Fold each of these.
Amino acid sequence: QVQLVESGGGLVQPGGSLRLSCAASRSIFSNNNNLMGWYRQAPGKQRELVAVIFIGGGTNYADSVKGRFAISRDIAKNTVYLQMNSLKPEDTAVYYCKATYNGYDYWGQGTQVTVSS
């Protein structure tokens, strides 16, 4: 079992920045097949991948966030971060952390990000 706790969401103006954090209850990066990532779901839309980070530190991003968002991790703290810069109104969504651990997917409770003036 893995528990994930997200934090860092909120209201920000267009062009602003936020950093999301996701703390896992155990070490995720202990297996080559494990990974962590961020997803988001806007009202009326399907949940979509934002960014993932692999055991070796490699990353993948959705085209819509490339160059603006950065995923990183602190292995000692079992924590993954999502630095979001140059935020746009279309980034408004509930952001979810996901961990794939030993073949199972675990989700956090989600944190709301609202980009509005």
Amino acid sequence: QVQLVESGGGLVQPGGSLRLSCAASGSIRTIYDMGWYRQAPGKQRALVASIPSAGRTNYADSVKDRFTIYRDNAKNTVHLQMNSLKPDDAAVYYCYAAGQTIDYTPFRAWGQGTQVTVSS
């Protein structure tokens, strides 16, 4: 079983910054892909950014040049640095990870979500 624990959400003024962090734990052999989705009230959950274990990062057009995703493979953590935040960025942010457990079973796990509020 794989668990993801997120931290770093909160209230920030427009133009401010926040950093979200997510740590994966459990019977993990490898994590192929990690990233962040967000869901605002009345909207569907949408990809914000993803980062594979090898390869290029991927960002939603709305956050390019403002958000940066990075991971520490040794610690099974992923972080999302969010700069120049806008009211439209307010949402619940969910971390995810996809990989294999130690017995080679594929997994896709989600965090519990962390609230980001952007308001003056």
Amino acid sequence: QVQLVESGGGSVQAGGSLRLSCQVSGRTLEIYKVGWFRQAPGEEREFVASVIWSGGSTDYADSVKGRFTISRDHALLTVPLEMNNLSPEDTAIYYCGCFRYGTSAYGSWGQGTQVTVSS
């Protein structure tokens, strides 16, 4: 199994920045991709960004392109998400999830971290 723990959430004003981090542990050799997702109150969980664990290729939701940057650090076993120019629409609980080789969906979710952006 792979375990994930998110950190770095908080409250900021519109236009501000936050840096989230996803710490991965366990059977990390099984990781194909790590993604960040978010869920606002009353909404479904939505994709934010992902990074291929080995090659580093990234993908972003249109709503965050140019503002958010995802990366991965093999030495620290972390997946940071740098978030800039935040808006109230970015307010949500942010989760990281792991897509393992041989599976067909994200699994092994973390507990989430709250991000609140005030206008």
